[in-house]
Design goal:
The chain is mainly α and 383 residues long. It is built from 15 helices and 5 strands.
């Protein structure tokens, strides 16, 4: 094993550990003092139970912090080594691209998390609204992710085709991972799988077998650090966290994989994104036993749907609590246990996505409180 490879592995491990520690510390701090109040970040999950969105910013902050430290270390080592060292220049540029991808996706994802109404969903919904002159927060986010991807691609450098390919990986990865954030832990599990594919692909196709692992270490470490909170249904990534995690994995793929592998990965991202407009990933997972077992790994038991007569809907609601659309196990013998939750799907209730607790008016007040808090904080820091 070469000296460069021996140095890269501890670097990847250190980056993962730093991002995990930073993500846990950020989550603890945000939970203790949430900007603009806890209600601003509280949503209801598919069980109609309260859940916080603060996991997403914490994951992004953890991964970006690790990359900031990596960029600082690369710049400092570059001063010690030869001024024109290509290796250190590439390392610094990659860290900056990861910071830009994670920070940009976090910012635009928060816009959709805090101000989005949820009335328009998917590319077709947002683009359809735009054709009628309505600019949704989802449209703003999509445009912001495209700009973030292009900036990251330019920062990574290369030919024009490489810049466009890398921009597509960053923006497409951010959007795709968000499509999986519909059940506890699912988005982080998918991110872990993608990170493993990037690391394996780089090990097979690249000269340095540990380059891929080093590239994905920061986002992977931050995501895994808060996976227990996600699986326990205490927190969720939201658009901010899922977009940031996906964008950084896209940047990692852009750095670690050769052009043919990047082109195949981007084609897969585009295919899944287009398919999501017509196909429910949740239904596909629930119908596929292997995928369903992986999806349920570490999660609370899925709630069971109980058939209710039309005339007794109100009684059933009082007995079983709010509705949800979790996978049903009613077809398996002995599936119903003493702790299982019987649920009823209420008419007119949108299924699948996490919903907001507050009304439109109180949501607007929460957003106002958030920006007022930010302005006050900036004012206090001025001399």
């Amino acid at each position: 094993m070469s000296r460069a490879r021996r140095a890269a592995r501890p670097g990847a491990l250190a980056s993962g550990v730093v991002s995990a520690v930073a993500a846990r510390a950020a989550y603890r701090a945000l939970r203790h003092s949430p900007p603009a109040g806890q209600q601003t970040w509280t949503r209801t999950n598919y069980r109609d139970e309260p859940i916080t969105l603060l996991e997403g910013p914490a994951v992004a902050v953890g991964a970006v912090t690790a990359e900031l430290i990596g960029a600082f270390a690369a710049a400092r080592q570059g001063k010690i080594q030869h001024r024109d060292s290509l290796e250190r220049t590439v390392d610094s540029r990659f860290s900056l691209a990861m910071i830009l991808a994670g920070g940009g996706a976090l910012g635009f994802g928060m816009v959709d998390d805090l101000a989005g109404s949820g009335k328009r969903r998917g590319l077709a919904g947002h683009l359809g609204a735009l054709r009628h002159g309505e600019v949704t927060t989802g449209t703003v986010k999509l445009a912001g992710l495209a700009a973030t991807g292009l900036a990251g691609g330019l920062l990574l450098g290369g030919k024009r085709s490489d810049v466009l390919l890398n921009a597509g990986l960053i923006a497409g990865g951010a959007n795709l991972l968000n499509l999986f954030d519909l059940r506890p832990g699912r988005a982080i599990k998918v991110a872990t799988l993608i990170a493993g594919l990037i690391a394996a692909g780089a090990a097979v196709t690249g000269p340095d077998r540990s380059a891929g692992l080093a590239a994905v270490a920061a986002p992977l470490g931050a995501g895994l650090a808060l996976l227990p909170e996600d699986l326990a249904e205490r927190a969720m990534l939201g658009d901010a966290g899922a977009n940031a995690l996906g964008a950084m994995l896209g940047a990692a793929a852009a750095q670690a994989l050769p052009r043919p592998a990047r082109a195949c990965l981007l084609a897969g991202i585009v295919a899944l994104t287009v398919a999501s407009e017509k196909v429910s990933f949740t239904k596909v997972i629930e119908r596929t036993p292997a995928l369903r077992r992986m999806d349920m790994l570490g999660r609370r038991p899925a709630p069971l749907a109980a058939p209710v007569a039309a005339g007794s809907a109100q009684t059933a609601q009082a007995d079983t609590g709010p509705s949800n659309t979790g996978p049903s196990d009613t077809g398996r013998p002995g599936a119903r246990s003493a702790g299982a939750m019987a649920v009823t799907l209420l008419p007119g209730r949108r299924t699948g996505r996490h919903r907001r607790i507050e009304s439109g008016v109180s949501r607007d007040r929460s957003i106002t409180r958030f920006f007022e808090f930010s302005l006050r904080t900036l004012a206090q820091q001025e001399p």
